[in-house]
Amino acid sequence: MKTREILSPLCLALALALCLPSSAAERSAKFAVTEQQMKALDIQVRALQRDAELVVLNLPAQVTLPASGEQIVSSPLTGLAVQLYVQPNQVVKRGAPLLRLVSQELGPLQLQLLQAASRAGLARQTAQRERVLFDEGIIAQRRVQEAQTALQDSEATLRQAKAALRLAGLPAQAIERIIASGKLEDGVTLTATQAGIVTQIEVKPGQRIDPTTALLHLTQLDRLALEIQAPAAQSAAWRVGGTLQVEGRNSKARIVSISPVVAPGSQTVTIRAELDAGTSGLRPGEMVTVQLPLGANTAAWDVPLAALAHDGKQAYVFVHSKDGFEARPVAVVSSAGQRVRVSGMLKAGEKIAVTGVVALKGSWLGEKGGS
Fold first, then answer.
1. What's the pLDDT at 298?
2. Which of 9, 132, 245, 320 falls 20 to 30 Å from 195 in CA-CA distance?
3. Which pLDDT belongs to residue 164?
């Protein structure tokens, strides 16, 4: 019976470990491995594909509020809080009454409104009368022009008086009612400019307030954000506008900003994303896990972690050929779990070893060392 030329796994492993060269630069990149040796050592290969399995990172994230999701309600006037219409954690609609206050500052503003409305009405009548007289040939055109100019000035003063009362918190309907009836308001009711939930109330009935006092906080719970701490080494993989998934929830988010500053202690960067849909069930302050796909890179390939071999700081993959394998250097772009993304002189369709890489590394190291 002929002596078999196939080395057993143990014999091959011992043979591969005999001599090691001092550096990767001194080794030949190519080395022979027969099909029989591949079977004996369970070396399996897989073709490189551009559309390989997507590398996904699972990272902790905290649910937060975007800057535009919280409203601080303050008083436009110095006055006295007389009645609260809401309670903590109450959901309110846009335009819902929140607080009523009375203020002496409303009086002069309303008086200016009535005076401006009277002057505007008188100027309007004068302009109409002057126009009729001019059409009948009784007066010169100059008087019509002067009356029209006076009307424009009085209407501008009236608009300014209305704007001052709107800034004071009176709605447009109340302002028109004051002009029509001449009855003044003694207070103003602050309303919600957006729908949300009352998260804080910092005023009580009977408390005197001024324009710098924060009275209530309204929060929009239908608009939430995520704050993610991602490893700085992988920050180049993220991009503004990219999407991510909240694990275990029907929620997706869009990345809106990536911090250019790395936290010294944790070596992470802060990624902020806004939830687009499916935010029901999430609350500000809650910790969740997000699945963040690594950014696409046409010059990179997704491979199993087990396919990498290292010699010092340099990473290699073993490319299969008809004569054996070739150790080809690669750069690790990013990694997640048992998948890594590498870049290097690789082509689609080339087959790389995905199992038995330890034995191949020993063969590669021993090839040059034994020569």
1. 52
2. 245
3. 93
List residues bridging with 274 in a β-sheet: 225, 254
Under 8 Å between Cβ of 277 and 252: yes
Neighbours of 281 (CB within 10 A): 11
For the chain, how far is it from start to end, CA to CA, in angstroms?
32
Sign of the CA dihedral with 71 first, then 72, 77, and 79 last: positive
Which DSSP string corresponds to 188-246?
EEEE-SS-EEEEEE---TT-EE-TT-EEEEEE-TTS-EEEEEEEGGGGGG--TT-EEEE
Sign of the CA dihedral with 96 first, then 100, 106, and 110 last: positive
Token digits of residue 4? 């078999």
Quote the CA–CA distance of 127 and 135 in Å, as a whole number: 12
Phi, psi (5° rounding) for residue 174? -65, -35
CA distance 145 to 127: 9
The pLDDT value recorded for residue 24 is 42
Its pTM surpasses 0.70: no
Considering only CA atoms, which of 3, 19, 190, 206 is closest in space to residue 96? 190
In angstroms, rounded to a whole number, what is the distance separating the alpha carbons of residues 62 and 44?
A: 42
Contact 30, 326 (CB under 8 A): yes
CB atoms within 10 A of CB 254: 15
Picking from 303, 311, 168, 290, the residue whose alpha carbon sits closest to that of residue 238 is 290
CA distance linking residue 273 with residue 152, whole number of Å: 50
Which three-class secondary structure state does DSSP give residue 109? helix
What are residue 135's phi and psi, to 5 degrees?
-60, -30
Bridge partners, residue 332, by sequence: 342
Task: Give the largest CA-CA distance in the chain.
Answer: 138
DSSP class per residue in 85-132: ---TT-EE-TT-EEEEEE-TTHHHHHHHHHHHHHHHHHHHHHHHHHHH
Q: How far is CA 227 from CA 58, 63, 254, in A?
A: 14, 7, 11
Write out the H or E segment, with its range, that includes residue 158. helix 141-167
Cβ(251)–Cβ(245) below 8 Å: yes
Query: Mean pLDDT in each 10-residue stretch from start to end of the chain (371 residues)?
Result: 40 38 51 86 84 65 81 89 92 91 92 94 94 91 93 95 91 91 90 88 92 87 83 73 81 85 86 74 84 62 86 90 89 75 84 90 70 46
